[in-house]
Amino acid sequence: MRSNLSFFSDEKFRSIFFQTLVIGIFALGIYLIVQTTGHNLEKRNIATGWRFLSDPAGFDISFSPFIDFKSTDTHLDVYFVGIFNTLLVSFCGCIAATILGFLIGIVRLSSNWLLSRVAYVYVEFTRNVPLLLQIILWYSILIQLPRIKQALELMDIFFISNRGIYSPRPIFENGFSFVFIAFILALISSFILRKWSKKRQDETGKQFPVALTALGLLIIVPLVLFFILGSPLSFDFPALKGFNFKGGMVIRPEFIAMFLALTIYTAAFISETVRSGILSVTKGQREASSSLGLKKSWIMRLVIIPQALRVIIPPLTSQYLNLTKNSSLGIAVGYADLVHGFGGISLNQTGQAIECMVIVMATYLTISLIISAFMNIYNKSIQFKEK
Question: Which of 108, 136, 314, 353 has the most other CB atoms within 10 Å of its CB?
């Protein structure tokens, strides 16, 4: 008997066996859940399938900056509107939260007692108040702004009211695509230039003005091409007609509330990540830099931050993922994201709860995996390379 089970003494075999067993049990559980669900749906005469995606939605969406959505469009269009709105608030929130979080994290370590205390109070207050309450708070403040008739005017082209911020809408005419292509090429050239200058500095010790050169490429080249093509860009300005503004574009209070709440809330966590990353750099690095005569701002930018990034990036990735998933809380204020539009209204109208939830879950999973992949690539690029 002992000889028949001797293969269990092989560590490699045991590892493969138990992993296969776990995967098999998991697959069996999924199969049983699917079978039971299908049986229960059939027993209650609930239709299943994906045909509902081509049915007319029958409702309007208040905020759809990327797709000209109408009530006659399909539920699949509702899904795409929800994705774009989710990505929009998530992308803007990640950028703003990163900038604000880095500033607060550095201020927390400031020798100025007042600044460091104010940053401390901000972090502790923001982190310990639920995000949902902060979203509702900002939305409640925004809807108290003046009504349309009494809208605040800025330079006669921007109007602020309780329905949102109305601003000119750019109209891209023929030829503007070449300007956009020129900007993309300038952006790629800037990355290539940065790598070349770093290699050149490592070899010769000479610095190259990368920032100014890249700024010139990104601004001057597209701008010159813009004027050569005859300025292929015009604006549609908002104008008050009747009980609302006509023309232009509007940023709804729901988006502004979500953007502010997600940014301020996530920035508090990012600031602590930045602070811990800076503190992880040994004091000797700062003292050695000071002995070389470097300014404090240069020491932070050229010595401390590059080393701290190796500690900051992994938890920063988690904060980006949290912000993206927290955007689903927009349903509390009616922000037309993926959960509110497709996972809420479309689900209720079609009754296809399982299909809608599977699509929404798969979408969030895909977005999270893409964010993780990009951040992992960047994290590897800044790690120490052993030779």
Answer: 108
Is the pLDDT score of 387 beyond 70?
no
Predicted confidence at residue 1, as pLDDT, reads: 46
Is residue 106 within 8 A of residue 91, CB to CB? The reply is no
Report residue 322 as tokens. 């949290």
How far is the CA of 135 from the CAs of 151, 177, 180, 188, in angstroms?
23, 37, 35, 37
Nearest to 221 by CA among 252, 249, 182: 182
The pLDDT, as a whole number, for residue 198 is: 80
Average pLDDT, integer, range 338-358: 87
Instruction: Give per-residue burial for 227-265: e unless 16+ CB within 10 Å, then b.
Output: eebeebeeeebbeeeeeebeebbbebbbbbbbbbbbbbb
State whether residue 39 is helix, strand or coil: helix
Could you give the angle at the alpha carbon of 329 between the alpha carbons of 328 and 335, nearest 5°? 80
Residue pLDDT, tens place only, 146-194: 888 888 888 888 888 888 888 888 888 888 888 888 889 888 988 888 8
- Of 139, 82, 75, give the one whose Cα is nearest residue 355: 75
What pLDDT shows up at residue 8?
Answer: 64
Q: Give the predicted TM-score (pTM) of the model.
A: 0.83
**Which DSSP string do the residues of 207-267 spell out, in sequence order?**
---HHHHHHHHHHHHHHHHHHHTT--EEEE--EEETTEEESSEEE-HHHHHHHHHHHHHHH
What residues have CB less than 8 Å from 74, skipping those under 6 apart? 53, 54, 55, 56, 57
